[in-house]
Amino acid sequence: MMLQPRITRPKGGLLTMPFIIANEGFEKVASYGLLQNMILYLMSDYGLGLVKGQNVLFMWVAATNFMPLVGAFLSDSYLGRFLTISIASLSSFLGMMVLWLTAMLPQVKPSPCVASTVTKCSSTEATSSQLALLYFAFALISIGSGGIRPCSLAFGADQLDNKENPKNERVLESFFGWYYASSSVAVLIAFTVIVYIQDHLGWRIGFGVPAILMLLASIVFVFASPLYVKRKATKSLFTGLAQVAFAAYVNRNLVLPVHNDSYGCYYHLNDSELKAPSDKLRFLNKACVIRNREEDIGADGLALNPWRLCTTDQVEELKALVKVIPVWSTGIMMSINVSQNSFQLLQANSMDRRLSDHSTFKIPPGSFGMFTIIALIAWVVLYDRAILPLASKIRGKPVRINVKIRMGLGLFISFLAMAVSATLEHYRRRTAISQGLANNANATVNISAMWLVPQYVLHGLAEALTGIGQTEFFYTEFPKSMSSVAAALFGLGMAVANILASVILNVVKNSSKKGGESWIEDNINKGHYDYYYWVLAILSFVNVIYYIVCSWSYGPTMDQLRNDKVNGVRGEEQEEAVKLN
């Protein structure tokens, strides 16, 4: 009797998707769920003032958004995506466990507040060791996010990317759609379920649930290890960009060829379409100038020292990155506005959060952020499924709003969001004082918190237009080899935004003191948050003007150039047809 050969199942495929998406989803539920109410935990249990607590959160979010750059570099250069995600998942779980311990063990934080309000807390100040443990938990969570977020999407694509499949592009497109949909659902769950648990069942359970979810995410991901396609680490694109900058500096005294058609002077790979670099940012061209072919290039045609001689493709990649930096910087102000969620949480906490006068259910103050996510998702669906098809039907040809117009519109809406926030806060504060609540920040002002919804919706629309628009802009403007950089730039903008938000907050706090009180006080009714919002609104308006200048100086996008080329070809064909007739 002959034994049948054992058929081994090919690795990867759709079977791996639930494990990868579940890992990313649980991480988002856990991390976003912790962030929403964290300012209340820092003020009530650690006795931190509003400004100091908000600065801590700004730095935490900045680190969380910066770490994906480090994670992407380590993944691409040394560890590979599977190992990076596995280590990061463990780091996130340990961080959440440490944070849960701060809620469970009384000795690791100051003695409880004896006052009944968050803003008037008589607890002793947290010691350096107590704060160090708290910051250690934040650091572990940031490290985890830095490994999971940049690698999960690419790792999932690795499982499905099959060049021999004729439907490969459609499969990847479907995966990206499900990936972002699951991410949005995860954030919604964090803003609702996790926040509700923290508000009604306390910090111990509220921090314990995210820790359990992160443990499940880690186990589920590692459990499916035998099923995954695991690509080996290769040289990182970040290394290549650094090599160009270094080589251009080392070769700064070289004289460039007079004409770029001197192909033999520049180093390029045999299969490269770029035989010579462009005339823009010519000082970087020195990185690919061949000084001595025998000393610079080996027998295999590769550079003997890639830190002194780079390819024309590498040079153009760095140029593309430098060129988009001004446009990228315009999105920072929008991210600063979005990061003001702690102040909006205090606003919601002081307002009537019932759905109606006869309702007993109150929306948790940390859950109002869900309106931003809902608005973002609603715009994406309407834009793709209703607005564009309707406009195309009316005009009789495909219609697409240029990405630069969408980004500019989003920045203007972000300005409107801050103007609306300032106007509403002025009315809320005036009403609180007229009701005799100036000294009681925890009392409920007789104003429905649903008035906060418009500003959240505007923030969602701004993110949908500018945030998604910037990501699309980077992907279309960069070479295919820079897709990882395109994905990381928006997160880097969020990191820079949170650092600048901390600077703006401290400047406003210190420069607005008058009679011992400033615009930013722990007691929201005594401060002038409306003035602070107007500062951000003015900066946002200036940023819109700055964007217009940057957009104009950038010139046409790759899509515009492609469309102009297509229209030019069609025009020539029509002229030829007229001549023949």
Write up what this structure looks like:
The chain has 581 residues and is mainly alpha-helical. 66% of the residues lie in helices and 1% in strands. It has 17 helices and two strands. It has helices spanning 17-36, 38-45, 50-79, 81-104, 128-160, 168-201, 203-223, 237-250, 293-296, 312-338, 341-349, 370-395, 403-434, 453-477, 483-511, 529-554, 558-580; strands spanning 351-352, 445-448. A two-stranded parallel ribbon has the order 1-2. It is globular. Residues 114-122 have low confidence and may be disordered. It is found in: Membrane. Its main location: membrane.
Over all CA atoms, what is the radius of gyration?
A: 27 Å
Q: Major sheet: order of its strands?
A: 1-2
> Fraction of residues in helices?
55-70%
Query: What is the straight-line distance between the termini?
Result: 78 Å
Q: What class would the helix/strand composition place it in? A: mainly alpha
| Rounded average pLDDT | 83
Q: Which H/E pattern describes the elements?
A: HHHHHHHHHHHEHHEHHHH
- The backbone outline, from C-alpha atoms, is globular
Strand-residue fraction?
Answer: under 5%
Number of strands: 2
Largest sheet: 2 strands, parallel
Spans with pLDDT under 50 lasting ≥5 residues?
Answer: 114-122
Number of helices: 17
Transmembrane segments: 55-75, 82-102, 132-155, 176-197, 203-229, 363-383, 403-424, 485-508, 531-555
Keywords: Membrane, Transmembrane, Transmembrane helix
InterPro entries: MFS_trans_sf (IPR036259), POT_fam (IPR000109)
Family: Belongs to the major facilitator superfamily. Proton-dependent oligopeptide transporter (POT/PTR) (TC 2.A.17) family.
